[in-house]
């Protein structure tokens, strides 16, 4: 019995020891695993911070790399625009321009030939300029009220003081004077009326042909037409000095006035029903020539007594306005 009890007691002690050893082992494992976890978390945090710093550095490098070409391109654009603006100023011929309110005023009272005037509303309504500008408008000078910024654009930033003008290469006369002049020199005069021809080269070439075929004058509207600029005078090759030009406020009213004074109004049109070679009227004539792209406006066509066409035999459907004018004058003066 004693032996059995001793054995049981020793076995119990053994089992207790084993349990304690196992528990110690597991607790050590837990402690080590916790330490490992702490270490791994610390290292991961460190790595995370490092990675974040590295990624941040990459981002900043990329952004700096991106910013540099943008700044470069902005500088390039600004320099390019600067040189382009300079080139435009050099290319634009300002020989026939006057700006500055005192200079403009002196040009107005000296009765120089003027093509166009730009001014601000303050200048236009001022006591000094209002009467002068109103009289010039009635004489056919194109006057535009523009903003200060628009005037700065037109003069490329010059000190314009709210007023600028472009001189004409020749003085214009009133429609009444043109009618009187044409009838005193010829029984069947021919006058050309230009509708919407804005290209100065075409206007200059038409003036040259008109003078060569003994036309008695040209009628041009204030708007939608090239004025008597230096380019027009150059292309006209001296013809502008021998051919009177009347600049009217409204072309259709001018045509009605010419009709009252015995002129027959004929228009050149690709849709005309009568060929110019079959037209044989012996009377004072006004030949209306429209622009190449739009031709004679519908309202002006209604004012015409005849719409004449130039017969074309090739595949080309239309002619240059100055060429059409020369051909029509050749046919009409030959009759």
TrEMBL record:
Q: Region Disordered: what ranges?
A: 1-77
Composition bias, kind Basic and acidic residues: at what positions?
Answer: 19-37
Q: What does the record give under GO molecular function?
A: RNA binding; RNA methyltransferase activity
SUPFAM superfamilies given for it? alpha/beta knot, L30e-like
Which Enzyme Commission number(s) are listed?
A: 2.1.1.-
The record's Gene3D superfamilies line, in alphabetical order, gives: 3.30.1330.30, 3.40.1280.10
State the source organism's domain of life. Answer: Bacteria
Output a single Gene Ontology CC term carried by this record.
Answer: cytosol
TM spans (from-to): none
In this chain, composition skew of type Basic residues spans 1-18
Q: Which UniProt keywords apply?
A: Methyltransferase, Transferase
Biological process terms from the Gene Ontology for this record are: methylation; RNA processing
Q: Which Pfam families match?
A: SpoU_methylase, SpoU_sub_bind
Domain RNA 2-O ribose methyltransferase substrate binding intervals: 97-173
Which EC class heads this enzyme's classification?
transferase
Family according to the record: Belongs to the class IV-like SAM-binding methyltransferase superfamily. RNA methyltransferase TrmH family.
Q: What is the name attached to this protein's record?
A: 23S rRNA (Guanosine-2'-O-)-methyltransferase rlmB LSU rRNA Gm2251
